[in-house]
User: What shape does this take?
Amino acid sequence: LVVSSVLSAVGLAFLAVTSPMLDVDHIRIVGAQHVTLAQVRAASSVHVHDHLLFVDAGAAARRIEELPWVEHATVVRDFPGTVKIRITEYTPTAYVKVANGVMLVAANGHVIAHASVIPANSIEVRGVRQPPAPGDLLSPPDAAGIVAHLPAALAHSVAAVDVSGSGVALDLIAGGEIRFGDTSDLAAKAASALAVLAHLGTAHFTYI
Assistant: This one.
């Protein structure tokens, strides 16, 4: 009886694991705007008729996050036969000019993709030593998001961020440059820059 019970349990478990009723029948993807559904499916390595129990959701999500546009991905097994994929894409905050267009950059310095049109509300990053490729990290990374952390009075006067020197500098629309060095103590540096600009008024300057 014991042997029979064990064999029956093993047999039932085998049938449950190999049953086509537990195959992947649907792959549902939410959040894709710049990446195609085919790209997400290919990156996930999950296919229809794969066994749902054997889908490694964590590994699939990590593979999807290797796509340059994808900031975050979650993969969930939804029984009886669906894999749900939800992705969050990067938002371009800056761009680097290249020979045939621009490279879009996220606020954390992640290089997203090549584009022929400059997106609205993005800032140019100048002085990049080597043209970046999708998936690269800008150097320094926080140059792409620095303007968003500045007081509005200063941010609205910035034409571009320059990384050609030893740190980060701001090229102003009216001319002149504000050299921040690294981005530590950003609030204090911005306040100091605004005070100096107010003192100078309309006087011409090369850099602060």
User: Anything to note?
Assistant: The mean pLDDT is 91. Helices lie at 2-18, 37-44, 57-64, 152-155, 186-200.
